[in-house]
Specification:
Elements (H helix, E strand, L loop, with lengths): L4 H7 L4 H5 L6 E8 L1 E2 L7 E2 L1 H12 L6 E8 L4 H18 L2 E11 L1 H6 L4 E4 L4 E3 L11 H6 L24 H26 L15 E3 H7 L4 E2 L2 H9 L4 E5 L23 H16 L4
Parallel strand pairs: 1-4, 1-10, 2-3, 4-5, 5-6, 5-7, 6-9
Antiparallel strand pairs: 7-8
Helix pairs in contact: 3-4
């Protein structure tokens, strides 16, 4: 019986030096994007400034057929969400690589916007997905300052410069203007999800774009998620048991001194007060999803 050359090659192991260097294994870069999405230059935030260097390094690994992106975010800035998602797609097109997105605890609102940049979205059954909507939050202090005897003095050039001033009573015109902005941003969000998820979405679901959110176990029925599973399981299934994960992490300067909260207390960027407010705001966003 004659065995073809093709069959011979299929059982011949890789040369020793290839195996020694791990070149016989498929390398998959892994980028983790975790935190609230905002432009602030904090290491625990997702934005284009923090994400771009990691993504560029991941997509630059030539022999990697795909890039795995872990998302864990309750959302945040619509602009930063779109910038990060667009950068992922631009790199994927330039480097001709598949993008696999893995959701951890939550990919909601802007977090789901970024997740939609993936060619495939994989999540744990209990992961939270969706919240395709826009939210704005503020406080009203007009009664408080009156009680403590403070008078508000505000001078503007332009009748709309004091829109939604928290120290003045709400005006219907201001609320209508804000609502228009929200609807414009919501349309951008909806259009992007539709363009990425296409026929996978259950367009009969009236709650899909209302800001509602679900577990991935339910979200998969609506087309928000492609499959349930974890990263190691899925990557071994796709690329073999010998797949090698290369985690892409931020580079740290050789000599660096950790910034302590008490080192800056005078209103400078990164001050104790700023850190405290940022932490409270971030916690409130995570708590919406029981986290």
């Amino acid at each position: 019986m004659t065995i073809s050359n093709e069959q011979d090659q299929s059982v011949v192991p890789a040369p020793w030096h290839v195996r020694l260097l791990g070149r016989d294994r498929t390398v998959i870069p892994v980028v983790r994007l975790s935190g609230v999405i905002e432009s602030a230059s904090r290491p625990d935030r997702i934005n284009i400034h923090n994400s771009a260097p990691l993504l560029k390094r991941a997509f630059s690994i030539k022999r990697a057929p795909a890039v795995a992106i872990i998302i864990n975010s309750p959302g945040g800035s619509p602009v930063q969400s779109r910038l990060v998602a667009k950068y992922i797609r631009d790199l994927a097109a330039e480097k001709n690589k598949q993008v696999l997105v893995f959701i951890e605890d939550v990919a909601a609102s802007g977090g789901y916007f970024i997740a939609s940049a993936g060619d495939e979205i994989i999540a744990d059954p209990s992961s939270i997905v969706g919240s395709i909507g826009v939210i704005s939050a503020s406080f009203g202090f007009e009664d408080a300052i009156e009680k403590i005897g403070v008078k508000r003095r505000l001078y503007t050039a332009g009748k709309n410069k004091s829109t939604l001033d928290p120290f003045l009573p709400e005006k219907k015109a201001d609320i209508d203007r804000l609502k228009k902005l929200q609807l414009d941003i919501h349309d951008v969000f909806i259009d992007y999800v539709k363009s990425r998820r296409g026929d996978k979405l259950d367009m009969e679901n009236q709650d899909l774009f209302t800001g509602e959110f679900w577990t991935a176990k339910t979200g998969i029925e609506f087309g928000l998620v492609d499959r349930l599973g974890d990263m190691h399981e899925v990557l071994r299934e796709k690329f073999g048991k010998k797949v090698k994960l290369e985690r892409i992490t931020p580079k740290r300067p050789f000599f660096s001194m950790p910034r302590l909260p008490f080192m800056q207390i005078n209103g400078a960027e990164g001050s104790f007060t700023d850190d405290l407010i940022a932490s409270v705001e971030a916690k409130s966003m995570w708590s919406r999803f029981g986290l």
